[in-house]
Amino acid sequence: MNKMMMMSSRIHICFLAVFLYASLTIIPTSSLGHSHICLSDDHVALFIFGDSFFDAGNNNYINTTFRANYYPYGETFFNYPTGRFSDGRIIPDFIACTVAAEFAKLPLIPAYLHPGYKRYADGANFASAGAGALVETRQGSVIDLHTQLSNFKRMKTLLKQEIVEAEAKTLVSRAVYMTSIGGNDYAIYTANSSLFQSYSPEEYVDMVIGNLTTVIKGMHKEGGRKFAFLYLGPLGCRPAARAINAGECDEEITALVKLHNKALFQVLQKLESQLKGFKYSITDIYSIGSQIMNNPLKYGFKEGKAACCGSGPYRGLRTCGVTGVNGSVQGYELCENPNEYVTFDTSHPTERTNLLYAKAMWNGNQSVTWPYNIKALVEQS
User: Fold this and answer.
1) How many CB atoms lie within 10 A of CB 216?
2) Element (H, E) at 370
3) Which of 55, 78, 330, 369 could bond 74 through an S-S bridge, CB–CB 3.0 to 4.6 Å?
4) What is the DSSP letter of 343?
5) Would you name the residues annotated as active-site residues?
């Protein structure tokens, strides 16, 4: 595990530049668009899909209650809420930063829906907090994975206005496609008795994986070749689950997560043999997250079970940042130092935990990330 956590210190080099680029609300929108730019031969873009683990603020621009655009989200790095469900940066931020440090090319990737963002040659973030692989998961309140793919297709048209068409085709094939999805589908399943009665756990997992597979094939059809996925983490042991299970993990959710992760690995193996040029990376954040939660001191944390922000047992009730009509606090608690906590709110990692996950994705060894890590994908022509 110690080897997995080792990473070049170059991940820190671009933090200042990332901060300046990420603070979109204080940068004139004209600076975010660049027409007819020239790309180097080794330029690699990042296209990001999924849920709140990866959402950089897309939900700020849709009609939904699944938002993190209020204090204390963003408090430790951005110094204001960006829409990320963390006290600071999320996993794609660290991956983009590492690509920049290694190859001196890529800035942090803002939300695709940000009205001022136009530099698609660097990539785009389509993720939406609360989204699932199934269209029906929180339908009308999130950007589901199929719609995220549709947004990617629209972006490709705009990309051809930014760079010549031949370069756009090359960029799309060299890019890395990062996806984190599924947790919200299973949250809906366990909370909905009619779904629970209609489908067995195995049937429901097949539906989720089937929808994800359709989108992956759609990305491949559009030119994508390099894909990076996260296993679902230990969702049954997050503060939200412990709060309603007397401090214990939710075994029902845990069983679904294990079924999902196994099925995801199996389908990616099949796609590798079916789709031309298809290469993939899986990072086992279930194992990593479980080890960190159960042994927080080993990894420099003080608290592995309770959240930094929330209320109730283990701060597992979703009240982080919620205020009354007059701005009064509604009883949520906030820790003094999020770096001491594995989890920030009821369900989402702190920035420091996101960094550990990002390290594993970027250059983790075969025990946690396989058959490639993202660094290996980026380096392939």
Assistant:
1) 24
2) strand 369-371
3) 78
4) E
5) 52, 345, 348
